[in-house]
Write a structure and sequence with these properties.
Layout: H1 4-12, E1 19-22, H2 26-35, E2 40-42, H3 50-60, E3 66-71, H4 72-77, H5 80-88, E4 93-99, E5 102-103, E6 109-110, H6 118-125, E7 129-133, H7 136-148, E8 153-158, H8 174-186
Parallel strand pairs: 1-2, 1-3, 3-4, 4-8, 7-8
Antiparallel strand pairs: 5-6
Length: 187
């Protein structure tokens, strides 16, 4: 099974000009460490709202593809967003969930994603395309496939059940993160 940081770096290797919203905690840290760029929005708080922010961007900027990097713990906090995404059906929305079955940023408490398959929830909510990968060898093909499809799309990426990571904190202030992204989408 993949480590979360390795999976994030592999996905970022296929990202070109897409806007990326990275959930708070280790996902933002590992995204920034793997490939910091102005098109990335790192959440430094607001646990559970990455998909909501991504949905807002996708609806406001339909000409830009929006990729959300979420975690199982984050998504479990706001499951209703899956239904909202499916109902709005933004064709430019890709939702990647790195599922380690723990709340990594709050101390490694077990999440319920082993008993509640989030890909099945996304499918039931109405996402157009839903995939699951468990091995590194499956990841590149799944990402490439979904980048070619009309969304909303959902990819559940099972990663090792580790709570911590190796990436440093995001070195940018929240206001600067928001401003540089704003400049990329309006300018």
């Amino acid at each position: 099974m993949m480590r979360r940081g390795q999976a994030i770096a592999a996905v970022l290797g296929q990202i070109r000009n897409e806007l990326v919203v990275a959930a708070n905690g280790w996902i933002s840290r590992e995204t920034c460490a793997a490939h910091d760029r102005a098109e990335n929005f790192y959440m430094l708080g607001s646990m559970g709202l990455a998909s909501s922010i991504g949905l807002g961007l996708a609806l406001a900027r339909p000409e830009r593809r929006v990729v959300v990097f979420d975690g199982d713990g984050n998504l479990l906090m706001t499951l209703g967003t899956l239904a909202m995404v499916a109902e709005r059906r933004p064709p430019n929305f890709l939702h990647f969930v790195f599922d380690n079955e723990v709340y990594g940023s709050t101390g490694g408490q077990r999440s319920i994603s082993a008993q509640v398959p989030l890909d099945a929830v996304a499918q039931a909510a109405g996402y157009r395309h839903v995939l699951r990968v468990t091995e590194a060898g499956e990841l590149d093909a799944a990402v490439a496939d979904l980048l070619e499809k009309t969304g909303p799309s959902f990819l559940l990426i099972k990663v090792q059940p580790e709570a911590d990571g190796e990436a440093p904190r995001v070195p940018h202030e929240p206001e600067w993160i928001a401003e540089r992204l704003r400049q990329r989408i309006v300018g």
